[in-house]
Amino acid sequence: MTASTRASSALDQDGPPPVRPAYDAYTWREILALLVNLPMAVLGFVYTVVMLAVSGGLSVTVIGLPLLAAGLLGARQFARVERYRARVQLGVTVREPSPLPVRRAGGFFPWLWTALRDPVAWRAVLFAMIRLPWGILTFTVTLVGLFVAGPFLPYVVRAMTQVDRVMVRWLLSPSDALERRIAELESDRGVVVDTAAADLRRIERDLHDGAQARLVALAMGLGLAKEKLLEDPDTAAAMVDEAHGEVKLALQELRDLARGIHPAVLTDRGLDAALSAVATRCTVPVHINVDLTTRPAPAIEGIAYYTVSELLQNISKHAQAHTATVDIWRTQERLLIQVRDDGKGGANTTTGTGLTGLTERLGAVDGVFVVDSPPAGGTAVTAELPWRDRVPEPGRTRR
User: Fold this and answer.
1) Gap between the Cα atoms of 243 and 54, Å rounded
2) pTM for this predicted structure
3) What are the backbone angles phi and psi of residue 167, rounded to the nearest 5°?
């Protein structure tokens, strides 16, 4: 294997081959990297200083912060070039960070705030600032070494490029956990925003088409009854009786709507009582088993309630089951939910039945949603939610 082949093979690995006093292709590639450090460091330093100075000086105007955000985007691109150089010239594998997260709702200002807080861009700024003195040092030492160091230059070059590798890994290589978490949070935020908007539209539609329309008709009926009160008391009395029935229906619709937003029984008595009420509306017999010594935070409790409610609704509509079972318990810092039925099976989270929406909702709060529904029959849905302790409200005793 030739020296050139060995150098090319090393590029596919995370790091250089063992150093030797011979001037092989890899050593020359490292020498080139150290010589190029100076012009790249000058470009990065000048760009960063001008960007910070100009945007800082204009920060009192409306264009200061947008200019800084644009400059940080440019710093990201400079870091991309440096990562490419590290891969090609130093044989170090550096994964590209995730794209700048942008909120799907909110317009320009959320994007601006996200760009200004971008940790990847600020690490690139720090990298550009400290590279100038290092670039001057590596350029000078390498250039002098080419003439006077002789066979010791490869060792000197390897030592300096090792510092380069460390700098790239520490400042330009993204943190896997952080980057993954940022991407997940941005995705989850979009899911939460979309879900909240859909819920608001549903409530608005239910109010407009249901209780509001009924109350408008009720007001018109009472107005007519008032006009006929003296002329035709019997007809007016019949109209008032009809209006009384409409009032009852309107109140029932409002109660159903309020129960869909957040049932009072859940707030007052917890999951066991609230789900028992839901089970009575299911078309198949449901056994509820809630094994909790304490209650979780209201937000987690509400998500658990709506998850079970929708699953029972799906059983009523689609499962063709004879019985269903709901088990809820706590394991360490997780709230576990399992809903089983003996229906036809074949349910999944990719098509219909609202399971896709449940998957997204639970994922938005670090939850897990798993469906086991073989075509042979029977479905078991398991959901996990993070346990968060309930904080007693001021002035109220904990139930």
Assistant:
1) 71
2) 0.47
3) -65, -40
